[in-house]
Amino acid sequence: MHQPDEKTSLQSSEKTPFEQAWEEYRTTINSSQTEKVKFIEKCSKFASEWHDPVTAINEAITEVETRSQDYQKQSRKVVRAYLLPFMNALTSFTGIVDSLTTLNPIRSIVWGCLKVALNASAKFLVEHKI
User: Fold this and answer.
1) CA neighbours within 13 Å on the CB side: how many for 124?
2) Is the Cα torsion angle 117, 119, 123, 125 positive or negative in sign?
């Protein structure tokens, strides 16, 4: 039977059960799983810096909200740069397509559905000031 030496037992007694489990889990990860290793190292660093869970949770929520706002700003820029000009070009051709599809009932039905979708998306973009 293996007897733990004093140094090992001293180190393990200083760590909480969670920290012990965390260290044990970290040793089971392959080096080929780099993303997981990076994530775990970041979590470990974060956990070692913050001993107050309330502060850590509040800061994590703030960071997520900030990143979400940044992402929304970027997506609005993409919509403004690419989608709005495309929508404006399509809207300018609706009269022509209306005239071309009046002779065929199937085409009229399909164009009617597309026109409703086009108008709804244009209205959404205008109302949300994107």
Assistant:
1) 10
2) positive
Which two structure tokens, joined as six digits, stand for 78?
């993409």
Kindly give, in sequence order, each residue whose CB lies less than 8 Å from that of residue 86, ignoring residues fewer than 6 positions away: none
Supply the DSSP symbol for 28: T
Single-letter residue type at 28:
T
Q: What is the pLDDT of residue 12?
A: 47
Give the model confidence (pLDDT) of 64-96 as tens digits.
Answer: 888 888 888 888 888 778 888 888 888 888 889
- The length of the chain is 130
Distance CA 54, CA 111 (A): 55
Burial environment of residue 50 by CB neighbours within 10 A (0 to 12, 13 to 18, 19 or more): middle
Rg (CA), the chain: 29
Quote the DSSP letter at residue 1. -
